[in-house]
Amino acid sequence: MSKQQRLMQELEFARNLQSSLLPKSFPAWGDFKIHAFTRASKEVSGDFYDFVELDNDRMLVVVGDACGKGIPACMIMAMTRSFIRANINRFTNLKDLLEEVNDNLFRDTGDGQYITIGACLLNRKESTLEYARAGHTELLIYVRNHIRTIKPDGAALGLLPSELADFDTFCIEFTPDMEILLFTDGINEAVSPLGEQYNVDRIKDNFMRSASAREMPSESIKRLMNELDEFTLQTEQADDQTVVIIRHL
Asked: Checking phi first, is residue 96 left (phi over 0); if not, alpha (psi -120 to 50) or beta?
């Protein structure tokens, strides 16, 4: 019992520590409305999201998904968040940031340990969105009653040495009434009792209904998670699940 109690206390400490790393609120940032949601499959999660204001006009939005589950994934997640924030003061562009974080993770983690990242750089002065990904799920963009799928090339962070790792970026004008959705693969790979995956097409359909109805990001996420739970019949959650929605009002 004593050993079990110690383990539970350590898990509770890790859970509280991880919770402290997530933003306590969602930024009120001019004409942009942001909301996020995450839930772990185990006591602690390998998923995370973060919002970092670089200056008065630019904000970095990051979603990450570390390989594995539980404490090992949680440690990779915490390291990645720390590396990103440590490099913010000398931020130049998304490509350089991902290369720097990749170098740090490849150096400090063991073989087979990595994290996928989706990173958005919002510029409210120029009304632009720059996106880069490192082995992550695609970015979904709602624009003019259509859903566009954006998938720049880029390997997961910590997987390859710097000379082999490269990251493409994608930049668009982020106009009023546009909306974007980032998610981790715990959403699209969630399965029904019959073993069928929820898949990206269902995420797109759900996002289309929410965005065309001009729902607030918090409402859109609630709709998505409710539909996901109905699809899985709330069977045991196999992976961490995270979603972020950014809407231009």
From this structure: alpha
pLDDT band of residue 82 (cuts 50, 70, 90) is: very high
Q: Which residue type occupies 199?
A: N
Q: Give the CA count within 13 Å in the CB-facing half-sphere of 159.
A: 16
Instruction: Convert the pLDDT of each residue in 51-62 to its tens digit.
Output: 999 999 999 999
Strand partners, 243: 37, 183
Instruction: Determine the Cα–Cα distance for residues 221 and 227; give it in Å rounded to an integer.
Output: 10
* Nearest by Cα to 103 from 157, 48, 166: 157
Residue 246 has pLDDT above 70, yes or no: yes
Q: Is the pTM of this model over 0.85?
A: yes
Taking CA 197 as the corner, what is the angle to CA 138 and CA 61, rounded to the nearest 5 degrees?
30
In which element (H, E) is residue 178 found? none
Q: What is the mean pLDDT of the chain?
A: 92
Give the long-range contacts of residues 163-167, CB within 8 A, separation 24 or more.
Answer: 165/98, 165/99, 165/102, 165/106, 167/94, 167/95, 167/98, 167/99, 167/132, 167/133, 167/134
